[in-house]
Specification:
The protein has 674 residues and is α/β, with parallel strands linked by helices. The protein has 20 helices and 27 strands. The longest helix is centred in the N-terminal third of the chain and has 20 residues. The chain binds flavin-adenine dinucleotide, NADP nicotinamide-adenine-dinucleotide phosphate and iron/sulfur cluster (SF4). NADP nicotinamide-adenine-dinucleotide phosphate binds next to helix 16.
Length: 674
Amino acid sequence: MKYPKLLEPLDLGFTQLKNRVLMGSMHTGLEEEKGGFEKMAEFYAARARGGVALMVTGGISPNFRGRLAPHSSQLSSRRHVKKHQIVTEAVHKAGGKIALQILHAGRYAYHPLSVSASKIKSPITPFTPKAMTERMIQKTIKHYARCARLAKDAGYDGVEIMGSEGYLINQFIVKRTNKRTDSWGGSYENRMRFPLEILKAVKDAVGDNFITIFRLSMIDLVDGGSTWPEVVQLAKEVEKAGATIINTGIGWHEARVPTITTSVPRRAFTWVTKKLREEVNVPLITSNRINMPEVAEEVLADDCADMVSMARPLLADPDFVIKAEKDQRQLINTCIACNQACLDHVFKQQRATCLVNPKACYETELVAQPLNFKKKLAVVGSGPAGLAFATEAAMRGHEVHLFDRAKKVGGQFNIANQIPGKEEFYETLRYYEHLLEETGVHLHLETEATPETLSDGFEEIIVAAGVLPRTPAIPGIEHEKVLSYIDVLLHKKPVGEKVAVIGAGGIGFDVSEYLVHEGESPTLNLNEWLKEWGIDRLYEDDGGLLDKPEITPPARQVTMLQRKETKMGKGLGKTTGWIHRNSLKHKKVTMVTGVNYKEVNDEGLTIEYKSSGKTETLAVDNVIICAGQLPNRELATQLEEQGFKVHLIGGADVAAELDAKRAIRQGTELALSI
Ligand code: FAD
Ligand code: NAP
Ligand code: SF4
């Protein structure tokens, strides 16, 4: 067996878990949708069939005030039980186990009825919470117990008490948010009382033979967060109070340190769980950026924890565990930690799904139509759109020929993976390379597709030819100091010390990130990364933060420019934009908005400030163009003129606001119906 530690059962005494994989809690948005529980049942059942030992639902509030948003789910009365049974029955039928997460949002609630330990507004929500009265506290503890009891009645195998990420329980635990002077505030014993009383009440309500997970914030990553001795003390008390398992929480939502995005090194925080392992005997789960079986195996072999929590990796591939069992890691569709279709959607009140797996949370909707007759199909372009289409269409039984003029598949992903912090994009390419083989797609690399190449009896042609970089009409654009992002990232043309980047979309940000780094990417060097984000591995102070980040000086002096007067990076991901901005600020990148480009000349780039009309010449060695893209449609037009039946997907269809999420989804949708 390739992953003996990961696949080893865990005996909890009253019940067994079949392996060491916990699917961590993720809000899907289905919780609040009409008919959502039926869809959720299939979502979880698919992961149970895929071999996950134990899953945790998205956070469900124990009462009205604890809801995350006005229409968020709560489990507080018998009438809520029935719909949860749809989920638990489906999971049990599929051979899995599932626990309900009880989450009271406290001051993170996005509604005016929010409550907290004290009346202190969070920096990430617009509402000031009401400080809870003694009566409210006592009632809330009862509500947790009632919720757990109802979860048991609904057939859940356990509950997870959400005590981390800065939600209500965390707000009681730390001085930052708890300024109370009664018996719930002040000393640490008092601040710990709330979680411990909740845990005791829950245990009384559900008994011993029911999995009770406590998610404990092991490193808050905010000033005024818990100290390490406090974390240990709480964990010992939680163990004493009878929790079955302690799960790891990393960072509050308001922390200005990235904890799960793609630039966070793999297993970046497992050392914290390991530190706690020396202090307690209760099984521990570790978490964050564990996305491949070998990473999980290594974490367990290093004695960091008894189980690993993976959430997004199981959105990306429901069959992750089974593939690990069958030694098929090459066929795992790896989570690239982009957040683009999961967390970004949830924060925009949209249903979560996955960039690399658009079927996630659409299990009952994105299904293949029956194949009436097999077609011979040509696909032009092996970027994300072409790859998704080709493999899915071949799986349905079509004969698929995939053409690309490049030496390898992947299209722009071969450029994206050059960016420090985007190394995960290699995994998507590895996955598709193996899937192409597995599904029998006929691959024609280094082959220019033309109406002639495609005249070999193809019934339909799918043009996934991507995009062409836009060249803005700036006087002097032909100057030798002007480079495109492709020149820099793909062709590795030399770049000088001082650089202006024209365009501040996703690619402008990525190119700037590339230019300020030299040598090894911090994402591949944990200690360097921890220092750059100000995380103290010695955990000497509260919250686990250093006094200030220790930044390696930038490799170049970069100025980013855009014509719009709006904030730079506004169009970046909802949950990741701040990370890109902060990362570039750390490297002293200058961001200039509201300019017109007047000329590129021997001196540099001359710009005009829209607000004042003043001009300035930036003395730069190179000007790098990241000014968006246009659809690559020429071939499609020629084919249509010659009477071929053509479908356009990805960038070749629409280049504006194109991303890999849309490219893959469009490719998949067409393949399921063609
Ligand atoms: P492409 O990836 O452009 O692929 C088109 C393919 O068609 C190419 O391989 C090309 O060689 C081939 N081709 C074209 N014409 C012919 C022909 N006539 N014959 C044969 N072959 C042909 N997106 C995200 O969602 N998240 C990100 O974080 C992200 N980061 C990025 C970072 C960078 C630096 C870059 C450049 C892009 C990034 N993107 C990101 C964008 C993403 O890569 C694109 O949206 C996606 O690749 C578009 O997919 P596509 O299949 O439409 O086209
Ligand atoms: P983009 O997001 O559309 O940005 C284009 C930039 O070029 C804008 O800043 C725009 O700003 C500027 N611009 C547009 N026309 C111009 C012109 N004629 N002259 C000068 N400047 C011009 O496109 P992109 O950066 O090329 O990215 C392409 C796609 O890849 C994006 O849609 C994005 O979703 C995806 N991507 C995503 C990520 C990610 O992290 N999620 C990363 C990289 C790429 P002004 O008009 O204000 O000047
Ligand atoms: Fe992972 Fe991105 Fe999919 Fe979210 S959308 S599960 S981060 S690959």
